[in-house]
Amino acid sequence: MLKELTRCCSALLLGALLVCAPITSAMAADSGSDQATLLLEKYQRQQERIEKIRANIDQVSSIEQAAISHRLLERHLHAFETINQLSQYLIEQKALGLADEQVLAQVEQIIAQNNQDLVNGIEKQQAEFNKAYSEEEADSIKAFQLYIEHLASSDLIYTAMVQQIANQRALGFSAEVEKQYLIDRLYTRAESFSGMVGLVGKKREELGKLIKITPDDQSLKDQLAVVTEQLAVAGESFKLTVSLLTQMGFDASFYQQTLLKLGGQITTDVLDVDILGGIAKRWLERLTEYFVEHGGEWIFKLFLLVAIYYIFRSLSRLVRKLMTKSLDSSKLNLSSLMKDMIISSVARVVIIIGILFALAQVGISLAPILAGLGVAGFIIGFALQDTLGNFAAGLMILIYRPYDVGDMVEVGGGVFGKVKSMNLVSTTILTIDNQTLVIPNSKIWGDVIKNVTAQKLRRVDLVFGIGYSDDIEKAEAVLNELLEKHPMVLPEPEPTVKLHVLNESSVDFIVRPWVKTDDYWDVYWDITREVKMRFDRDGISIPFPQRDVHFYPATSEAAQIEK
């Protein structure tokens, strides 16, 4: 029953929709017509208010006239916004095929009249501005204020005209006359701004020179501030003008180049192929002119620069060779690092002197370069505090020489190996198993440094244990004999063989022969091997850790107690 009721309701709803569809379309069309009518009525009311203001504008004082004029501009903008909304709505309706032809005809007349009003407004405003500006002192605050107000209102009017022409074309109205008029006005305005960029730039240079001569003249500083701000304000209107010209289909690439020079900012418009091509062409022309005029001079300076550099580089190599021979033959006990640092420093100083001399010869002032190097050195030193700490530690290692290249050392908290190389920042260690480790000098200098090969002689410390039942004198004689026969064991200092400890499982002898540092491990391994083989032949045991456990049988009384 419920299913049948649902089916009946669905059928009734579908039928109602099919019947009401034409009615809904008609209502939408009527609604659209009503909305267009409402916007037309709103625009007419706004125009009536504008006419009333115009009729009474001459009956108020001069101060009130300025306020009324400002209010009149606001009213015009509100009316334009209304007609723009109506145009946008009609564009949408026309795309759907629902536009009312009668309303379109009315809107066409209104837009034509509105265009004429905007043209009259531009010309009237320009005339009023010219008159008011001529009565003020040039570069004064009042004149600058008038200029700002003129640019702001002109920007609004031109923007409205461009939007209105776009609406005309979208609605299918003829707008070629208005378009050509607007392009001419915008082109003249862009040319004016372009000329202003160069004119104001020159004026700023002149004022800057005058201020250097009379730095206490506040009027010159005020003029410079006004001119600078005037250029900035004009730049914004210039940017808008170029954008409006581009929207009208006018090639404004040349003005884009001027904008780039004025603002120093790259926008998406500047990335246009034509604009980039124009910029590149101008730069190429200027570069060509400069090269034709100064090319020979710069070629000679470049040749001189290269020649001086190569001369001083050859001199640096010669100084490096002489310093190397001198230090190698001298009796000074210098480390390898100290020698390398002295040689490299002297060679680099020669190169730096050559570069500075070459720059001075081509006419480059050295004072700013040296000042810049000082500032850069301070910044780099502040940023590289840890590196400078390693550098300081490297200097301490260089001075006190705890190790040198080729020494076997234990540094950095347990790193053991041969010093492969070192500099003022780090030390490279080659471990016994052939691993390369680079250790910062600050970690080495801040810890214990163990130099195994610093001395020519080393003592080999060995410990051998025999059993408690073995002959002590025989074992001692065997150990002495092995040391005497080994060719690498030195007679002086005399080797030591002594009974040292009665250990838990063994009687321990210490064996301490002296050897050359390079023979340390050979003697260590040889003696250990010979002792084992000789003890085995002579029947001397080498005990391993052991413990004797004794079991005592329990007596009958103890067993009875445990029970």
TrEMBL record:
Membrane topology: Multi-pass membrane protein
Presence of keyword Ion transport: yes
Domain Mechanosensitive ion channel MscS C-terminal: 460-542
Mechanosensitive ion channel MscS domain: residues covered: 386-453
Transmembrane annotation, as ranges: 298-316, 337-360
Record-linked InterPro entries: LSM_dom_sf, MS_channel_C, MscS_archaea/bacteria_type, MscS_beta-dom_sf, MscS_channel_2nd, MscS_channel_C_sf, MscS_channel_TM-2
Coiled-coil stretches noted in the UniProt entry, renumbered to this chain: 36-63
Main location: membrane
Signal peptide: 1-28
One Pfam family, short name: MS_channel_3rd
Compartments reported by the entry: Cell inner membrane; Cell membrane
Keywords attached to this entry: Cell inner membrane, Cell membrane, Coiled coil, Ion channel, Ion transport, Membrane, Signal, Transmembrane, Transmembrane helix, Transport
Protein family membership: Belongs to the MscS (TC 1.A.23) family.
Function: Mechanosensitive channel that participates in the regulation of osmotic pressure changes within the cell, opening in response to stretch forces in the membrane lipid bilayer, without the need for other proteins. Contributes to normal resistance to hypoosmotic shock. Forms an ion channel of 1.0 nanosiemens conductance with a slight preference for anions.
Assembly information from the UniProt record: Homoheptamer.
Name of the protein: Small-conductance mechanosensitive channel
Native organism: Agarivorans aestuarii
Organism classification: Bacteria, Pseudomonadati, Pseudomonadota, Gammaproteobacteria, Alteromonadales
